[in-house]
């Protein structure tokens, strides 16, 4: 697991809008705070789970509750999108079509309040149980701050419960209409939910393999620098070492020359919310200069 754990959807503007409307924004704020007590000790728990069946089972319960919370937040997001769609926003209707075909059209505030309260109670129980294990807050070793740029892809792996998610992501990537515009598809969620696993499944999908001329996977190190990231992308694209000075403008021109008009997929694994400004201000404008790019 990485060092960043967060129910990223809790602070989502769509979720906040509906919880305020329903009068349960206090519970939403609790859901934003409560997991922090668990998240700061997950590294120690992961280590202890290798020798303790009880801790291993507890880790499984944590993931299950995280999935449950994610489903509840999805319902809130859906309701916000559904209400906006009534105004006639075709783009929102398209998102609804892709992501929420299974969601009911009726939204019951009292039912959702109970679901949210149930998740909070389960988190409290997990915290109480966690305290009995004597878990401590650990930080990841410094040598892990730089991660390998190529991710091992096991084509034979079978992941249960992710097929529907994979199909949605693959469909989105395959149906992009504007091939001259940067397409960004973020996969967000709490650490340990399987975001990287889902991305790997998409990356290895046979339709994706045939659709993109070039596929690259880069594990983003913490506090990444734009120049070093561009250099890594060039090395992935050429399968060779790039030895020229790491000046952003030169790297940008080199990347344009290497990619050309190819349709390519770039997976940036491990980009954190804290790095959003760096992505928007520094990296996205550079990648936008390229043609036919999908950043997953």
TrEMBL record:
Keywords: ATP-binding, Leucine-rich repeat, Nucleotide-binding, Plant defense, Repeat
Source organism, top-level taxon: Eukaryota
PANTHER family the UniProt entry points to: OS12G0206100 PROTEIN, PLANT BROAD-SPECTRUM MILDEW RESISTANCE PROTEIN RPW8
UniProt-recorded name of the protein: NB-ARC domain-containing protein
A GO term, aspect molecular function: ADP binding
Record-annotated NB-ARC domain positions: 163-279
Family: Belongs to the disease resistance NB-LRR family.
Ranges for domain Disease resistance N-terminal: 6-86
GO biological process: defense response
């Amino acid at each position: 697991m990485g060092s960043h754990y967060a129910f990223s959807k809790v602070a989502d503007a769509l979720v906040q809008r509906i919880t305020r409307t329903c009068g349960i924004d206090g519970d939403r704020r609790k859901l934003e705070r409560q997991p922090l007590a668990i998240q700061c000790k997950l590294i120690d728990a992961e280590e202890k789970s290798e020798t303790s069946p009880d801790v291993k089972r507890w880790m499984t319960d944590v993931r299950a509750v995280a999935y449950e919370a994610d489903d509840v937040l999805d319902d809130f997001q859906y309701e916000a999108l559904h209400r906006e769609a009534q105004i006639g926003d075709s783009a929102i209707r398209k998102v609804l079509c892709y992501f929420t075909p299974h969601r009911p059209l009726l939204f019951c505030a009292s039912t959702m309040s109970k679901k949210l309260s149930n998740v909070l109670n389960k988190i409290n129980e997990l915290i109480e149980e966690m305290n009995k294990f004597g878990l401590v807050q650990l930080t990841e070793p410094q040598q892990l701050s730089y991660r390998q740029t190529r991710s091992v892809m096991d084509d034979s792996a079978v992941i249960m419960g992710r097929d529907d998610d994979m199909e949605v992501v693959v469909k989105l990537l395959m149906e992009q209409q504007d091939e001259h515009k940067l397409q960004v598809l973020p996969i967000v969620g709490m650490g340990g939910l399987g975001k990287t696993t889902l991305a790997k499944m998409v990356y290895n999908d046979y339709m994706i393999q045939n659709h993109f001329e070039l596929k690259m996977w880069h594990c983003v190190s913490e506090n990444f620098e734009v120049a070093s990231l561009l250099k890594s992308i060039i090395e992935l694209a050429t399968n060779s070492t790039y030895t020229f000075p790491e000046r952003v403008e030169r790297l940008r021109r080199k990347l344009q020359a290497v990619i050309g008009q190819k349709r390519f997929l770039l997976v940036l694994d491990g980009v954190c919310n804290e790095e959003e400004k760096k992505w928007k201000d520094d990296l996205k404008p550079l990648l936008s200069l390229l043609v036919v790019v999908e950043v997953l």
